Amino acid sequence: MNIAFESPSQSDVRQLIEDLDAYQVPLYPAESHHGVDIAVLEQPNVLFGVVRSDDGQALACGAIVLEAQYGELKRMYTRPEQRGKGIARRLLEFLEVQAQQRGCKAFALETGYLQTDAIKLYERCGYALCGPFGDYREDPNSVFMRKIILATAV
């Protein structure tokens, strides 16, 4: 398994994003969809990672949008047949480390309340429930989470 920054506009990576949308769009009303498009994912303040198998197949993707006060996790998706193998956790750790190296000390995310496996993953990785942040508003379909990175003594 290999994790690297890649362009989200590649056809196999676009397919991951389309699969994510195909899964989520029917679950929630339109006003509760907060996914960003590929143009946003290509901005310089976005760290977009792709997990590939040893033979090059795109297995998962995810991004952190670096804002002034935090990095927002966006577009995390792992192919269903690849879930339960630690791929999403490794991708999340990769993105967090890369964001920290760029000075990010806090992370936030919004996900749907029906994404129970994702919520459990985020909790295991140190994320805690919080209220809306940034431009988000209270939404019964949304779960908001954050993680603060504490400074460590050297």
UniProtKB/TrEMBL annotation:
<feature type="domain" description="N-acetyltransferase">
    <location>
        <begin position="3"/>
        <end position="150"/>
    </location>
</feature>
<keyword id="KW-0808">Transferase</keyword>
<dbReference type="InterPro" id="IPR016181">
    <property type="entry name" value="Acyl_CoA_acyltransferase"/>
</dbReference>
<dbReference type="Pfam" id="PF00583">
    <property type="entry name" value="Acetyltransf_1"/>
</dbReference>
<protein>
    <submittedName>
        <fullName>GNAT family N-acetyltransferase</fullName>
    </submittedName>
</protein>
<dbReference type="InterPro" id="IPR050832">
    <property type="entry name" value="Bact_Acetyltransf"/>
</dbReference>
<dbReference type="InterPro" id="IPR000182">
    <property type="entry name" value="GNAT_dom"/>
</dbReference>
<keyword id="KW-0012">Acyltransferase</keyword>
